[in-house]
Amino acid sequence: MVENKSKKEYVKKVPSSILEEIFQETFSELEQGDTFDKPTVSKLRELSQSGSFKDKNKLISILKGDLCENTQTQN
Amino acid sequence: MKILKLKINSVGGIRYKLELEPQEKNFLVYGPNGSGKSTIVNAIDFLLSGKISRMGGEGTEGIDFKKHGPHLDVLSKKESYVSALVQLPRIKDPIEIKRTFEHPNELIIDKKYKHAFKPITTLASQSQHILTKKEILKFVTSTARTRGDKINNLLKLEDLKKQLELLNTINNSFKKKLQTTEKTFNNSKITVGTIINKEEPSSADILLFVNNQRSFLGVEPISNLNSSLLKEGLSSPAVTTNEFNIKLVEQNIKKIGELISQDYLEDKLTELRLIISKIVSNLKLKESSQRLQLTRTGLTLLDNSGQCPLCNHIWNPEELKEQLYSQEKFYTEASNDLNSIKKIAQEMFDFVNKEITLLKGLIKAIEEWNLEDEFPEFKEWNQSLDSLCLILEELVKYPDPNLNFKEMEKLCAIKNLKSQIDELSLIVKEKSLETTTEQASWDLLTTLESDLKSFEKSQKDLKLAIYAHRRSEELYNSFFTAREKVLNELYDEITDRFVEIYKELHSIDEGNFDAKLSSKKKGVNLLVDFYGRGMYPPHAVHSEGHQDSMGICLYLALSEKITHGKIDLIILDDVMTTVDAPHRREISHLIANSFKDRQFLITTHDPIWAKQLQIEGVVSKKNMFKLTKWTIEAGPQLNEHVDSFEDIRKFIDDENVPAAAATLRRSSEEYFSSVCEYLRVETLHKEDRGHDLGELLNPAVSKYKELIEKAKESSSSWNKNEDLREFSKIIKKSNKIIERSKVEQWAVNPNVHYNNWANFTSNDFKPVVDAFEDLFTIFECDECGGMIHVLMNGYHSEAVRCNCGSVNWNLKIKE
Fold this sequence. Notes:
The structure holds 2 protein chains of 2 kinds. By secondary structure, chain A is mainly α. Chain A has 4 helices and no strands. The radius of gyration of chain A is 17 Å and the shape is flat. By secondary structure, chain B is an alpha+beta fold. In chain B, 55% of the residues lie in helices and 11% in strands. Chain B contains 24 helices and 17 strands. In chain B, helix 8 (246-261) runs antiparallel to helix 11 (317-368). At the A-B interface, helix 1, helix 2 and helix 4 of A face helix 6, helix 15 and helix 17 of B.
């Protein structure tokens, strides 16, 4: 594989972006599924971009929050 | 980032200002053990990261870099500092950086460059630029977890690990919440079902029941089921509200009588006993699910070699296959048995839970009628069932075959309960006759109103819990899958580069080498090819020397990936001594040719290795710094030149001729081995390339003479008279040197032969050393110190050059 790639290509993907790359991959998979709606995925995206994805409370709130809002709306 | 200048003052073993000027090029720090080489490495580490990583971690308890980092005689920590002039990519001017032990957390740097420097300090905090001897093997040997930690640390994947753990924690908490909510929901459903006398009450059933009661009370039916509407249109004055409901008590008594007459629990206990006795007879079955997984993994790895992938023993291939498949069948059955235990326990749990719900209603009535003394068994039974519930709940989670059957039978057995139920039934019947239909309906609606409210709430909570858990599970799974994908892609890239580097290093013995680096749960798995015989962990079959090579190659591949454009400095601290002699030249080639965009700092205590790095063009003469004569008061003395003959002369001064002879022979063998390769001398081919001096010297000298004669002839053919004169001078001078070394007389004069060197006196041996030192110089460039080498054009020698181009002999004759 490397024989076909230049060294520049090999080193272009800097590791500081590995986590972000995984987040992007995760969110696009969530968008394709039917468990998450787009606004919730957007909220998760915003959370990762603001570097707050380690905030347990915020994550929990997003994971159950939207449903509460929807349920309230339905009611 | 590359270093142009480095200043170290009062750090570790360095007392007064020590200055090195590598000017962005590779540099070598050479010196005996304890001369201060590692202090230079620590100083750079401190300058970039604000800490000294070797003074932290395992085995460094009681060591504090702030306290033990500065020189011991220093009075003020302000005096202890490291500074450097560095060059950053994309920034034109060099940048001055400094850090003192007074404020180790503060990097002193021009404000405008602070932002550009941030990624460098972040990377440095992971110690990603330093490879030490003791760390090499951590990359290849040890467990997947330890290797994973090391690689993860280098790739800065710690955040990733923490993120995954957090998502897992959140998912588990949602799962737990869901289980609790499900339990509450089921209980409230049973309660409602008990009131309306239905096992699985649907909304329609409940609505029908409500409207029946409303009809007895003479009001219109309701169309929507909602706890707040049950008594709509009803007023309380006509009837009174009882604490309990007589109709309900009647129903409960009837149902509980039916339940205990079924002997359900006893039957289930017998079923459990049968399965468990089978499992207990073979304790291995307790771990059947793990063993099943292991056997299945073994089956996926099974080939026709007959080697068992689980125990590595060699079997008859067919027998092995049969054995593994029969084991799989056996453990599948056992695993099914464990699942049956779970299933039966769950069924018993549901049954007991139903009994408890009914029983609680009866106990309430008994208390209301002050009949506790007449019916004491009901409360005892309730306690027994609660205890049984706890045992069953555990059994559902962990199907442990070590069950206390006696205890369970005791909890299931109910003495005198049937007669007690009959007695209570009579009392309830009497009381029922005293109650009007309206009263009974009002009481039922009142009870149902409260229980339906709880049911509605638990239903809503369950819905929320299911959704939240589904989301958290999907988020965790998606993150996990994405992590696997991204990391494995990354590992594939690193593996390819690792294989490429390793093959360059071991082209002779492992030209077909291959490897596989992959994500393994929390660790990193590494398998390497062993001479085409399959993939093995590196420490399973490869020699220690090869493992060291793998460690260096993997580090270089990782380091290239991580630090590119940030820290272009790679520090190899005493690493080269781990490489065996035949591969030193390859690693020198590798550093010199494949990592041209990097700056290496190499430390070594081996003078021959230091010399080799110079002649192979890894470091230039002026970038070789020798540390000597270290004292605690003054630190090391810096000599900006490495003299590999210094040790030999020291042996002669100490009258230790055998040691001097052995060192000269060893270094000469290394040296002339390189000369032969560089000048394209056809030498004997040995797998380990361990030629002795006699096999190398004469061919090397003869080739040199042949080449310079050819260069002279070429100059003559091109009419380059000045070059011609220069070549005549070189030939004259080199002939003198060769003659003095008596190299060409060895075959005929055994008295000057290297086999006899050890028998020489100091005075006899000194001229030999001088002659060899001079002999070395004819193969080196006066400017860069690098070894001259032949440039080929196809099969033809075209020129002789050095690394810097100062030596450039044309070998082509004008036609």
